[in-house]
Amino acid sequence: MDIHLKRCKYCDKVYHYQASGNGCFRETNDENYCPRCKEIINKALLNNVPKDDILTHIPIKCDKFTDDLLQRMDKIKKEYEEDKRKYFSSTIALGSELDYDNIEKYYIDSKIYYICYNDDNKENKDYFIEKEFCKYDKTVKDIYYDYNRYSKKDSLIYCCNICRRMKKAFSKPFKVSEPCGKLFYNDIIPEWEIINKNN
Asked: Which residues contact 123 (CB under 8 A, 6 or more apart)?
């Protein structure tokens, strides 16, 4: 959990902003406004902005990317592999919208692309691009451009579907003597996970 002291940009009140951890997605948890002001802002937006004019963004399946784009991705991937020899690298967990073991997420020219595949068939790849989406009428709009992203540099993030990985993590039971109970080998993190100690 990562908590910071902030000063509200409207009322100047000092408050705690939670940058990560359980509860960080609360509607009143905001980097710029205290919970009281953020709640007022949320209510004003809800009452004044039409629902059919509110957009989010989601990955939409598409045809295989062009050769030029794939070459750019290959270059980004090689640079990433070279950099991770010097620095720590990790896999980011995504929600259930992309049901794959492995997800390569590319940021290129403010667009977001995905190459997805599973462990049992890495040659069979699916391709996605982030697009604007209206939840109210379930319509897909134009390509989503992430202009608010801090870094404008083309980059790659390795991701996985957390639900698929969790199922795999607990799919290999091993009986052991008490008091350990049931032991599982974790496919995601190369270490032994002990659960259900009283089993």
From this structure: 117
Residue type, 16: H
Do the strands 139-143 and 121-134 form a parallel or antiparallel pair, or are they unpaired?
antiparallel
Q: What are the strands, taking DSSP E only, across the chain?
A: 2-7, 14-20, 56-62, 92-94, 102-108, 111-118, 121-134, 139-143, 155-161, 173-175, 182-185, 192-195
Q: Say what the alpha-carbon torsion angle 109, 146, 127, 122 is, to the nearest 10 degrees.
A: 90
Span 73-101, pLDDT tens digits: 999 999 888 877 655 556 676 766 788 98
**Element of type H or E holding 169:** helix 162-169
Q: Position 12: which residue type?
A: D
Tell me the per-residue pLDDT of 97-127, one tens digit each, with 9 for 90 and over: 788 989 999 999 999 999 999 988 889 999 9
Place of tokens 């709640």: 39
Angle at 196 between CA 193 and CA 173, to 5 degrees: 60
Contact in structure between 30 and 24 (CB atoms under 8 Å):
no
